[in-house]
Design brief:
Number of strands: 0
Distance between the termini: 146 Å
Largest sheet: none
Number of helices: 2
Strand content: under 5%
């Protein structure tokens, strides 16, 4: 073997080793890219699920705000109804005061007082020493 053949053999072996190393590196790179693609796909799926959940949460919050607006409107309506009722009760209370302070109220108070006094006198006559009044 001459020097040219040995140089060609060394070059061929070196080329085969470098080709093998290059193939190994390319194979690892392909696997890395496949794993990266899988990771990106998984992240996209998770992102879609996350966006769907966030959208559902926003929809629920919007529904709650609509309910709160409805409750606020109902409370306003209830407040106006209570104001109207308070006015009517005030008018009835004024009527009751007018009746109680007038001649009918005085006559009723007199009748009550007389009936109570007569009832107390009758109870005092019926009691015997040692018994409670009004017990039957």
């Amino acid at each position: 073997m001459n020097a040219t053949a040995i140089a060609a053999l060394i070059a061929a072996v070196s080329f085969a080793v470098l080709a093998g190393i290059g193939s190994y590196v390319m194979l690892r790179l392909v696997r890395l890219l496949a794993d990266g693609t899988k990771l990106v796909t998984d992240m996209r799926d998770r992102g879609d699920a996350l966006f769907a959940r966030a959208n559902a949460a926003v929809d629920r919050a919007d529904a709650q705000l609509d309910r709160a607006d409805t409750v606020t409107a109902s409370m306003d309506e209830l407040g106006s109804g209570m104001s109207e009722l308070a006015g009517q009760v005030s008018a009835l209370a004024g009527l009751g005061r007018a009746i109680a302070a007038g001649p009918v109220g005085r006559a009723g108070a007199l009748a009550y007082g007389v009936r109570r006094a007569v009832g107390m006198r009758r109870a005092a006559r019926k009691t015997v020493r040692g018994e409670l009044a009004g017990r039957r």
